[in-house]
Each structure stands twice: as structure tokens, then as C-alpha cells.
Amino acid sequence: MARNHTKRRNAPGPAGQDGSPRPRQDRPRERSGGGDGEGWLWGTHAVVAALANPSRTCHMLLATENAAARLGPARITPEIILGKDLDNRLPPGAVHQGLALKVAPLNPSSLEDLIDRGISRICVLDQVSDPHNLGAIYRSAAAFGFNGIVLQTRHAPAITGVVAKAAVGAIETVAEARVVNIARALEQLADAGYHTVGLDGGGRRILADAVAGAPKIAIVMGAEGSGLRPAVAKACAELARIPMTELMESLNVSNAAAIAFYEASREGFPPQ
Questions:
Q1: Which domains are delineated in the chain?
Q2: How many whole angstroms separate alpha carbon 248 and alpha carbon 18?
Q3: For residue 127, which of 32, 201, 226, 209 has the smallest C-alpha distance?
Q4: Taking CA 55 as the corner, what is the angle to CA 107 and CA 73, rounded to the nearest 5 degrees?
Q5: Phi, then psi, of 261 in degrees rounded to 5
Q6: For residue 270, what pLDDT is reported?
Q7: Is 191 exposed, middle or buried (0-12, 13-18, 19+ CB in 10 A)?
Q8: Residuewise pLDDT in 10s, the chain (272 residues)
Q9: pLDDT for residue 163
Q10: What's the Rg (C-alpha) of the chain?
Q11: Looking at residue 54, what is its pLDDT?
């Protein structure tokens, strides 16, 4: 399979972030499993972060004997289980590291909540659909002080165990808001003083120049394959590109997001 990319608009093919899920060999080898994973988080970082989040309702903690010993005291007592039995509770390929936690979903914030809380760095995702990419974007957002992510109510993945594992616990600290219309959300952010920058290979300015000096920034990333939709691109204050050599046409959307978050946060890091 092809990778997800950020393509230049003057290159053949669709504009913006482009690509399908990463090659299977780039992911952990799938193991046998029988569960659908609904309501479960797995992996050490995802489980520990959820247990530490007072806003997260936790129902059941499953752990192998070794994993329970590594975990130490937790706010709920783990049920000791064999690794092979834990495999069968989770989807195929779930790398659980001996830990799984049954949880209730977090209540999403509203866009108004993010603005009112004074979050100065926000990521807006226009139909990014691959859960591994979404999780990786959460992880980079937490690393570079982007404390809010805006997703569409439709055409965006649910925050599942797959997303949580890729996010390495960041879903517990980065606030999520869901909106019906991304273009209208960008208008609302602009009215609140955010400089809205759409990431696009055909942007006139390089990303570093586009974000320099802006006290409040919203970085907008387009979908794998089609990139930013025309109405969303039009709603951005400007489109910017990541400069690259001619040896490589594009980047995976999650890699492009990490670069964008870093560039937007360099001045006065750590951001508020």
C-alpha cells in the first residue's frame, strides 16, 4: 500500500495530504485475536495515562501477572489474566503489552470550550481518516503544545484503542472538539483571533514564515489522498508549504503535522 503524503499542488495527482494507510510491514505483525476492542484501551502508555486522568471513567483493568507488577498500585484492582486470553479480548494486531482497560468515552469539548480555555495552539483535521495517523497526530500535538484538536463529526475516526495506542496516552491530555462544518469552524477561530494556516504543497509561503509571530495559531491538515477540500482551503487565512528537496514529493500526513506543530511552537516554547 502507498503511504499517506502531503503532495504539492503543482505535482501530478491530488493536492494536499495524500496517501493510503502505511504498508503492513511498517506496523506490528498481526496476532490472533477475537474481540472487537470496543471500549478498550491497551498498551502501557495508553492505560497508564487513562488511569491517571480524573475525567476518565474506568470500568475494568485486565493485566498479565508481569504487567500488573510493572504497573504497581492503580485506582482499580486489575484482574490477572493470561496473555493469550487477553489477545482474545482485543482486535487482531493489538500490541497490548499485557494491559487492557475498559473505559467510557471521554466527553468531547466544544470549539467554544477550546477558545474560552485560552488554548493558543489548535490542530484542525479535515477528514483525516486513518486511525494510526490520527493517533500519531495526537502524540505530536501533545509534544509541541497543541492542546486542542478539532475533528468533523462525520468522516473522522472514533477515538478507539487503535488511536489511543498510537497516541501513547495523548488522548487523555489533548482536548478533542467535534464540529459539523470545518470551514465554519475556521471562520469562528479567525473571529477569535487565530491565524488559520492550511498545510498544502502549493502554498505561496513556507510554513515557518506563515506561522512566525502569531500568538494564536490553528494548523489545518487535509485528508489522506484528497488533501484540503476547496471550501476548507478557502476558509484558511493562508496556505503554506513545508519546503522539501526534489528527491521527495510528499510526506506522511502525521509526519507533516509534527513538522508543522514544531514550527508553530518554536517561538517562546513551551507554548501556553
A1: 40-103 (no CATH), 107-265 (3.40.1280.10)
A2: 13
A3: 226
A4: 140
A5: -65, -40
A6: 52
A7: exposed
A8: 333 344 433 333 333 443 333 333 333 333 345 565 689 999 999 999 999 999 999 999 999 999 999 999 999 999 999 999 999 999 998 999 999 999 999 988 999 999 999 999 999 999 898 999 999 999 999 999 999 999 999 888 899 999 999 999 999 999 999 999 999 999 999 999 999 999 988 888 999 999 999 999 999 999 877 789 999 999 999 999 999 888 877 788 999 999 999 999 986 555 44
A9: 96
A10: 19
A11: 95
Strand order in the sheet with 238-241: 175-179, 148-152, 121-126, 217-222, 195-199, 238-241, 205-206
> 23-28 — which CB contacts under 8 Å span 24+ positions?
27/93, 27/132, 28/93, 28/95
Alpha helices in the chain (DSSP H): 44-52, 65-71, 83-89, 111-116, 131-143, 161-167, 182-191, 207-211, 230-235, 253-265
At 5, the amino acid letter reads: H
Instruction: Give the DSSP per-residue string, 152-179.
Output: ESSSS----HHHHHHHTTGGGTSEEEEE
Distance CA 200, CA 240 (A): 6
Read off the C-alpha cell for 220: 489545518
150 CB neighbour count, 10 Å cutoff? 26
CA distances from 43 to 71, 146, 182, 244 (A): 11, 23, 32, 35
Give the residues across from 198 on adjacent strands: 220, 239
Concatenate the DSSP letters of all residues of 194-226 into one string: -EEEEE-TT-SEEHHHHHTT-SSEEEEEEBTTT
